[in-house]
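Design job #97: recover the sequence.
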C-alpha cells in the first residue's frame, strides 16, 4: 500500500504541475506574447537607430561610409534606411548598389533595387574590377531621384529589369566603367522592402507641419504606417540631424511588423497541436517520476531475493545521494563480503582436497619406491648372504675366490643402485641447479663412445655418428653427458650382438621460432627387440624394465632413463621413444648455442 501511495502521490503532483505550467504558458502566449514581442522589437530598433544616427553625427561619415554603414544596419536590423533633406530631396538612398568609376573619372552609384529578382545571378557574375555598361534614365525628383538602371551588361552577359524589353535598350542612357565596390543584400526580401520604402517616402513627403515642428525641436518622429499596396504593417522612425541649431538632414527608417503577426498566428497553431502532445507528455512524465521513486526499491528487492538463494553475484546499480542510495550501497557491500567469504571458503576446500590428493599421491609413490627398492635390493642381498654363509661354513674352499668376487659384484651393484636412487631423489625434488655453458656436442658424444668401448666390444657392436659436425649446444655439460651415457648404455644392453648403433645429430625443424632459438635434435637407434606399444609411455619411469619378470639378464638399476628424463625436463627439452623397423630409437633436444649456428652435412 505504501508503494502505491508514493506512486499515486508522484503521479498527481506531476500531472498538476505540468497542466498548470501548460495553461500558464498557453495563456501568456495567447494574450501577452504578440504585444511583448512587438514592443521588444520596436524598442530594440529605436536603440539601434539612435546609435546609428549618433555615430553618423559624431563621426561625420563621408558618402562611402554612409553607404557601407547603411548596408550593415539594414542587414542587422531588417530595416530600410534613407537620408533625406527636410524638403524631401534624397541625399543617400539604397545602400545596395554598384560603385562604378566611369572613363571620365567620376563615381556613379548604381542602385540594385530594380534587379531584386536577379541578385543571386548578378552576385555570381559581377566582381570588383569588372568592366560593365549600365543603361538607364535620370529621374529628377522623388525617392528615385538620380540614375535609375534598367539594363546591366558585362561582355555577353546581360541583365534586364522587368520594366523594359530588349528593344528598349538602345534608347537608354549608357554609363560604362570599372566596378570599384559592390554591396549585395542578404536576401531577396531586402530589395522588396526597398520598394515599400519608396512608397513610404512618397507618402510622408512633404512632411506635415506637426511632424516638421517635432523634428525641428530635435525630437524623433515615430508612427505606424500600413502600406496600401501590400497591406503590411510597418513602423516608421525619423531621426533629425541638427546643424547650427537648424534642421539639416532626416534619417528615415522603415521596419515591417508583419513578422510579428505571422509568428503569432503560427504559435497559435503550434500550441493547438502541442496541446495533444502535452497531455501525452504529462502521462509519460508522471510514469517516469513514479519509476524514479519505486524502481530503486524493486531493484534492491531483486538483489535481496538472489542473496537469499546464496547468489551473491547480483549487484544493485542504484547511485543516489539519499537514503535509498545509501541502502543500495550497504546491500552491495554485504553481497560483496559474503561472496568473497564464500569464494575463500571454496578455495580453501579446493586446496584442502588438492593437499589430500597430493599427500595420498606422495604416500603411494613412497610405497612404490620402497617396494621397488626392496625388490631391487632383495636379490643382491640374498646372493651376498648365501655366499657369505658358504664362506662362513667353509663350503667349497677351492671356490673361495669366486665367492668373494660375487659378493663384491653384488655389493657394487647395490652401491650403484643406492647412488642412482639418491640422484633421482635430488632430480625429482628440483633441488639441483644447472651450470649452463656452450660446448660442441659431437666432441662430447665421441668422449662417451670412448668410455663405453669395452661394453661395445663385449657385444661386438659398432657406433656410427651422422649429421652435424659442428653442432654446439647451450646446456649443463655434466648432466648432458649423464643423459647420453644412460641412453647409450640402455641401447647397448638391448642391442643384438654384432649389430650397429646409430647416433644422428640434426636441427629441430620448427616454423614458429627464429633460427637462433632452434634446438639440436639427438637420435640414438639400436637394432634389437622392440618395446611393446602399450609399454612405450612407461619406459621413462623408474625401475621399469622391458621384461615383466624383472630378471637380471640385461643388468642395470632401472633408474637410468628416469634420471635422463628429469635432467631433460630441467633443460626444458623434449624427449620421446619410438619403435623402428629394426629396433628402438630414443630422441631428445637441446638448446643450440646462440653464438654458433650449425650447417648440415
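Job complete. Output follows.
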Amino acid at each position: 500500500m505504501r508503494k502505491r501511495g508514493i506512486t499515486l502521490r508522484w503521479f498527481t503532483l506531476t500531472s498538476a504541475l505540468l497542466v498548470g505550467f501548460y495553461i500558464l504558458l498557453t495563456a501568456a502566449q495567447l494574450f501577452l506574447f504578440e504585444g511583448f514581442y512587438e514592443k521588444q522589437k520596436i524598442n530594440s530598433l529605436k536603440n539601434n537607430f539612435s546609435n546609428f544616427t549618433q555615430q553618423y553625427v559624431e563621426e561625420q561619415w563621408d558618402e562611402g561610409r554612409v553607404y557601407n554603414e547603411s548596408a550593415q544596419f539594414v542587414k542587422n536590423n531588417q530595416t530600410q534606411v534613407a537620408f533625406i533633406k527636410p524638403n524631401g530631396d534624397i541625399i543617400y538612398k539604397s545602400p545596395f548598389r554598384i560603385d562604378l568609376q566611369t572613363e571620365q573619372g567620376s563615381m556613379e552609384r548604381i542602385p540594385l533595387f530594380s534587379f531584386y529578382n536577379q541578385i543571386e545571378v548578378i552576385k555570381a557574375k559581377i566582381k570588383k574590377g569588372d568592366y560593365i555598361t549600365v543603361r538607364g534614365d535620370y529621374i529628377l525628383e522623388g525617392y528615385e531621384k538620380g540614375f535609375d538602371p534598367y539594363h546591366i551588361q558585362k561582355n555577353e552577359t546581360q541583365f534586364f529589369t522587368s520594366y523594359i524589353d530588349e528593344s528598349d535598350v538602345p534608347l537608354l542612357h549608357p554609363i560604362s566603367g570599372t566596378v570599384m565596390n559592390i554591396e549585395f543584400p542578404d536576401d531577396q526580401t531586402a530589395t522588396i522592402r526597398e520598394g515599400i520604402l519608396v512608397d513610404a517616402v512618397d507618402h510622408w513627403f512633404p512632411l506635415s507641419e506637426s511632424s516638421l515642428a517635432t523634428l525641428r525641436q530635435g525630437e524623433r518622429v515615430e508612427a505606424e504606417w500600413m502600406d496600401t499596396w501590400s497591406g503590411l504593417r510597418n513602423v516608421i522612425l525619423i531621426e533629425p540631424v541638427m546643424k547650427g541649431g537648424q534642421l539639416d538632414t532626416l534619417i528615415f527608417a522603415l521596419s515591417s511588423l508583419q513578422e510579428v503577426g505571422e509568428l503569432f498566428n503560427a504559435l497559435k497553431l503550434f500550441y493547438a497541436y502541442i496541446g495533444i502532445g502535452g497531455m501525452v507528455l504529462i502521462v509519460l512524465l508522471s510514469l517516469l517520476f513514479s519509476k524514479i521513486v519505486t524502481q530503486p526499491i524493486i531493484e534492491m528487492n531483486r538483489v535481496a531475493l538472489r542473496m537469499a538463494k546464496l547468489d551473491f553475484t547480483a549487484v544493485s546499480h542504484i547511485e543516489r545521494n539519499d537514503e535509498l542510495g545509501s541502502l543500495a550501497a550497504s546491500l552491495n557491500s554485504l553481497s560483496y563480503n559474503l561472496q568473497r567469504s564464500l569464494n575463500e571458503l571454496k578455495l580453501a576446500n579446493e586446496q584442502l582436497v588438492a593437499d589430500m590428493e597430493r599427500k595420498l599421491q606422495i604416500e603411494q609413490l613412497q610405497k612404490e619406491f620402497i617396494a621397488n627398492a626392496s625388490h631391487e635390493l632383495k636379490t643382491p642381498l640374498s646372493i651376498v648372504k648365501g655366499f657369505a654363509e658358504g664362506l662362513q661354513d667353509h663350503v667349497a674352499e677351492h671356490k673361495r675366490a669366486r665367492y668373494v668376487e660375487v659378493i663384491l659384484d653384488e655389493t657394487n651393484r647395490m652401491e650403484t643402485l643406492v647412488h642412482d636412487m639418491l640422484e633421482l631423489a635430488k632430480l625429482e625434488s628440483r633441488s639441483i641447479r644447472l651450470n649452463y655453458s656452450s660446448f660442441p656436442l659431437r666432441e662430447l658424444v665421441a668422449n662417451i663412445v670412448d668410455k663405453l668401448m669395452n661394453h661395445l666390444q663385449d657385444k661386438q657392436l659398432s657406433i656410427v655418428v651422422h649429421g652435424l659436425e659442428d653442432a654446439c649446444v647451450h646446456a649443463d655439460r655434466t648432466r648432458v653427458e649423464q643423459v647420453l651415457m644412460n641412453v647409450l648404455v640402455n641401447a647397448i644392453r638391448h642391442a643384438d650382438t654384432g649389430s650397429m648403433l646409430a647416433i644422428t645429430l640434426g636441427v629441430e625443424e620448427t616454423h614458429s621460432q627464429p633460427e637462433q632459438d632452434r634446438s639440436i635434435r639427438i637420435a640414438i637407434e639400436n637394432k634389437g627387440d622392440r618395446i611393446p606399444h602399450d609399454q612405450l609411455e612407461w619406459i621413462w619411469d623408474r625401475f621399469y624394465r622391458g621384461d615383466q619378470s624383472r630378471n637380471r639378464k640385461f643388468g642395470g638399476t632401472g633408474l637410468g632413463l628416469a634420471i635422463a628424463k628429469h635432467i631433460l625436463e630441467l633443460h626444458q627439452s623434449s624427449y620421446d621413444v619410438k619403435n623402428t623397423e629394426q629396433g628402438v630409437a630414443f630422441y631428445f633436444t637441446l638448446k643450440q648455442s646462440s653464438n654458433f649456428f650449425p650447417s648440415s652435412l
